[in-house]
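Worked example

This section walks through a single chain of length 339. The input is the sequence exactly as stored; nothing has been trimmed or padded.
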Amino acid sequence: MAPLRPWSITLRLVLCLALCLLLAELLLQALLPELVAAPVWGGLARLLAVLPLFAWCARRALAPLRGLEDALRGGAAHETPQPVPAELQPLSDAVHGMLARQREATEQQRRFLADASHQLRTPFAVLRTQLQGTMSGQLEVKDTLPKMLATVDRSSELVRQLLSLAKVEQLVAQGHWTEVDLETVARDVCLEFGPLLARKRLDFSFEAVPVRLTTDPWLLGELLRNLMSNAIHHAPRGSALGMVVRVLPDQAELLVWDNGGGIDAAVMDRLFEPFQSAAGGTGIGLGLSICRQIAESMRAQVQLFNRVQDDRVVGVDAVVRWDLAPSSARAIATGRPHA
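Given that input, the structure is written out below as tokens.
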């Protein structure tokens, strides 16, 4: 059976005051009737009699407040919240909600650090084995060096993404947003990836219209870099790849598409979790997690879709959508400036 809610503090104080006035009057009438009859001295005597009684009663009435303080100070907030007076219920709910979110964030951070430490230990253990095998002569140098280079590259990419994730969390917490042109940032990011696109001989296409967003320029650029990097990583050499910035009814949309085959629908949502990758994937598994965190800070949605042509999955579309005010969407569509 659930415990009953304590009495209201306001009701307790009102009852205490009434009881104190009654007791004081009865005591004074019984002990000092002549003094009570005097207008000035009677009022002073009543006040002096009521104050200590009311102080004691008020202490009892405010006991639930001290109980809540002791529960929070002693760590009992980790348990099921106990019933409190109605006046304290909003405060109790807010404090317990904040502590629950803090515990969840701490647990997520603990799991993330455990995964990160494992991800960092693995390539170094592999690198150590490769070095020992090469030094002992068990492994051929010309065959092992490219593998060692790939291990070092993977470790460097992991460290880069961990640093990127830390900066994302810092910028999101600061929340210093400015107006940014999505088309300009997208064009700059595409130019950054020019050498890598040329190295894989990818047929790249870019289509964009001006779209103004309120966000952090670096965060927006990092979102696009991770989507582009992911698409290039999965695109076969000599295939097609592209980026599109367009305006839909009441929404702005960024699309990064590739022809690298599809993704198993069963793992598609899981790919946005840290250190998760598709079956047979060789990525770190942090890029899409960073994308989702950045998108959520912009109140945007990021999703992956398999693209089907002729009843066959040919690639993946990474889509980010921002909600726009109707007036902004119309202004962008007609090419007029908007407020």
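What to look for: Residues 55 and 138 are 86 Å apart (CA to CA).
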